[in-house]
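Encoded backbone
================
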Amino acid sequence: MRPPLVISIQSQVVMGHVGNSAAVFPMQAAGLEVAQVPTVVFSNTPDYPTLRGRAMPADFFADLLQGVWERGLPARASHVVTGYIGSVEVARQVAGFVQRAKQENPDLIYFCDPVMGDDAPGLYVPETIATILRDELLPLADIASPNPFEIAYLTGQPITALADLPRAAAALGMAAGAHLIATGCHLTETAGGMLESVILGPSGISRHPVPRLPVAMAGTGDLFAGLIIAALACGRALTDAVEFAQVQTSRALARAAALGAQEVVLSDPDFRAALLTL
């Protein structure tokens, strides 16, 4: 049997680990095939004084998606994941692609990571892209992993307590049976020194705390999503996949901090070894 195939539509960088450059390695190390479709190609993460590269031209991106269809990848894929999108034209194409892919492959699981902002920088995509995420991509999602800022922006409802999440989840308009993973939550109920991921779905709510590390690095959410998909595609339940992803993301961040790196590091031996156990 061929291994599970994931179509990963995200950013890509020459140096560093964000988007596909963070998410693809753990998926491949876990034994998955990954078809990488870049939405932007940059020289590095946005934490440096200069940033080179650009969003994919709309006609070029469309050509890549056509190649994906010609190779029959949506019919073979178990998962499709979308992350950062750098232009409105590409966002509209991504929405059309996901909709068609799910129609032609009803078993396809769509994981939407609506990468659009965070508390410190605020919204860092054009408002039109945020609208496409809210109105076109999230309603297609089987699983979505926004952070509290993104949930609040998309719903107009601030996220400060656990009780805020079910109301906001309903306002997102996701399909019946879909799961929302609220990532990086520090709620009034969250224990001191911890962050938590909260999963909301048809079976209720589950909370997954993890020690809060004194670091904030670009690519953390992209890595987290890639780890969840790697675990899911290898047969783990969603709750187990989230907890696996939390442990491994923490390892990657701790390794980066120990090395004095400015961005996520994927070279920790325990991190790499854990991927082989999936």
About this structure: The chain has a mean pLDDT of 96. DSSP finds ten helices and eleven strands in the chain. The CA atoms of residues 218 and 263 lie 6 Å apart. Residues 238-259 form the longest helix (22 residues).
